[in-house]
Structures are given as structure tokens and as C-alpha cells.
Amino acid sequence: MPEVILEAVDLEYSYPDGTNALRKINLQVRKGEKIAILGSNGAGKSTLFMQFNGIYRPSSGSIKYQGQDISYKNKALIELRKKVGIVFQDPDSQLFSASVYQDISFGPLNLGFSEEKVADRVKRALTDTETTDLEDKPTHLLSYGQKKRVSIAGVLAMEPEVIIFDEPTAGLDPRHSQEFMQLLEKLSIEGITIILSTHDVDLAYSWSDRIAIMYSGAIIAQGEPGELFMRTEIVERADLALPWLIEMHSELVQKGWLPPSTPLPKTREDLFRSISAKNNTAC
């Protein structure tokens, strides 16, 4: 089994006003996996991410990186954030330099790398995010989708082992959402561990290796996507809907158009293949 790279242990967090935002969170993130944190707005997803990166400090419990409790001393936090990067929902919260190149180079420069090494990291980040044509463009002239990609490039230039995406497709149209998810798939293939938060059940189901469902500051279930979504009581408790692929599969089985033994489709192509196979058998 892959090693656990990031872990929350009995994690609790309350805001200064007394709001109990996280309640006894226990979650292991394995190296190289794609994990979705699924929940409605206010479930605690973003607050959990701030814990993973050391931005917030637990009220109780702990965050572990590679098996060790993280330290909240400045030097240790800098080292942690080189390994665990966050791409926030609003890219404007991350872009603050005059040009795209300056913004992406900010992190590596502050780590004390030579100009040559910084330039190499920026070039690779631009290539990976397909933003090389934006290198000299002022950040304030970028489109929303371009800002999303540049904010990712800024994190990639730090060469993290884990990247956390907070509602990555929020505000994107369907085409740009699809392109964005293709980028995440590319990063995953390159070995980066990816955690994303979303309330989009279709995205979480089709994309992730594993899902953790949050509700009211707690993780109420976690496991493989198909297994979790078959537990309708969990889905209803978390105020979520079923992914359309599972709904369609269930409807086709109920009508007898697919045999009950047909595996749950992970993609629309899987569903079409099952329907075609059934039709070919019938012929």
C-alpha cells in the first residue's frame, strides 16, 4: 500500500468567535493518489485545507507530514509549504505581481535559488500549465481561466509533492473546466498527490481515487467513490445528490436494459460501452 504522505489525526479547530469548524477529523492521504473532499458550502473543506498547509493551527489534534507532526515555527512552515502547495478558489488572492513571470518566480526567488534555477523552474511551470504565451503579460489583464492556470504555475514552481485545490472549477465554463481537469490528470500522472475540494458530485465521482464526505465540520464517510455513493443515507445526510452516471446506471438496471451485474460506470464512455455490449448480446 502507498505510504501516507499527509494525515489529520483527531483534528479539531474553532474560530476566534467560537465557531466549531472542524470536529475530530481523521484522514490519511496516500502518496500519489487523487482524493476529493466532497461537501456543501460551509462543510469545513477550506478550513481543513488551511490546516494541511499550516496556515491555521489546530485547537486540538494534529497534522502529520510523512509521519511527523508538523511544526509551526517559521522555518519549518516554509519547508512544509514547499512540499504542500495550495491553489485557492479565487486566483486573485494568489496573484499580486506585475507580470506572470514575476508572479511565478516569486516563490523560488524567496527560497534563495539562483536566477538560473528560478528561470528553469518558471519555464517548466509555464510549460506544464500551457501558459508560455502569457509569460510577459500583466496579471491584471488575464482572463479568469488564465489566472487559474498561472496560480497553479506559481505553486508548481515550488515543486511540491502535494497540491491542494480549493473548488478548482468554480467560475469556469464547461470547456475550461474540462481543460482544467485534464491538467490535474497530467499532474497526477507525473506523481503529484492531489487533493481537491468540491461540491460537484459528478466531478468527485469520475475523477477521484477516493472521496471523503464532509458535513458540518466532520468527515461522515470516506472510501472509494462507487462504494460511497451506493450508501444513499450518507448522500442524503450530507445534502448531496447522486452522480448522474450512477442515477442513469440504476435506472437502466431497473428497466431491465442493463443486467444487475453491470459494473458502475466511472465515465460516460464506460456507460456507453455497457449499453453497446447489452445491445450486441441481444442481437
From TrEMBL:
GO annotation (BP), single: cobalt ion transport
User: PANTHER family under this entry?
Assistant: ENERGY-COUPLING FACTOR TRANSPORTER ATP-BINDING PROTEIN ECFA1, HEAVY METAL TRANSPORTER
Which cellular compartments is it found in?
Cell membrane
Q: Which InterPro entries match?
A: AAA+_ATPase, ABC_transporter-like_ATP-bd, ABC_transporter-like_CS, ABC_transpr_CbiO/EcfA_su, Co_trans_ATP-bd, ECF_ABC_transporter_ATP-bd, P-loop_NTPase
Keywords of the record, alphabetical order, are: ATP-binding, Cell membrane, Membrane, Nucleotide-binding, Translocase, Transport
Q: What is its main location?
A: membrane
Membrane topology type: Peripheral membrane protein
Q: What's its job?
A: Part of an ABC transporter complex. Responsible for energy coupling to the transport system. Probably part of an ABC transporter complex. Responsible for energy coupling to the transport system.
Its family remark reads: Belongs to the ABC transporter superfamily.
Give the record's GO CC terms. Answer: ATP-binding cassette (ABC) transporter complex
**What protein name is recorded for this chain?**
ABC transporter ATP-binding protein
Question: Single GO molecular-function term?
Answer: ATP binding
**Residues annotated as domain ABC transporter:** 6-241
